[in-house]
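We recall that each integer encodes one residue's backbone shape. We quote one record:
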Amino acid sequence: MGAVPDADLLDRLADALRAGLPVVIPTDTVYGVAALPGVPGATSRLFALKDRGSDTPLAVLVADAAAARALVTPLPDPVVRLTERLWPGPLTLVLPRAEDISWWDLGGDARTVGVRCPSHPLVRALAERVGPIATTSANRHGQPTPTTAAEAAASLAGPVAVVVDGGPLAGVASTVVDATRPDWRVLRHGALSLSDLEAVADAD
């Protein structure tokens, strides 16, 4: 997972998230604003900070593929290959939601969940400590995502509990794949190309 994040910072982030408060964190792509989906009311704060409705779903960031499997129904082999070869990385997979998390308020279709294992040591260490983290880009709906932590926090429609400065981030957002059906399709083109995905999914 790379460099070990500062323990005090992880404590502050974990305490805020467990209290249902939003935080701004760097990821391997762009700055995100995050909350714990298992805390009642926490994700509704994210929609308010984004100034958008809940029709656009939140993604969930996890520490590893094992944590992702706990959130979804059994995965077909091509999807397993995607997780094995492209995680950690900029790939979000939309999958059928497990019954245990059917009550999570992530917006969009309550039968599915978008899951990603990012290649950022802070996010993965935090997710290992507190569990899956609901995250969306730290910007107002329809506006560009700022490249610095301070600008990201200032762009939101209200305050957050903790802002983590990870330096300038100008990455490309993750590629989002609907893997709820055999003929999976790309919902959002991002850091990974369609050919990247097909090469892995079709491999023996």
The chain has a mean pLDDT of 92. Residues 7-201 form a domain with the DHBP synthase fold (CATH 3.90.870.10). The chain has one domain: 7-201.
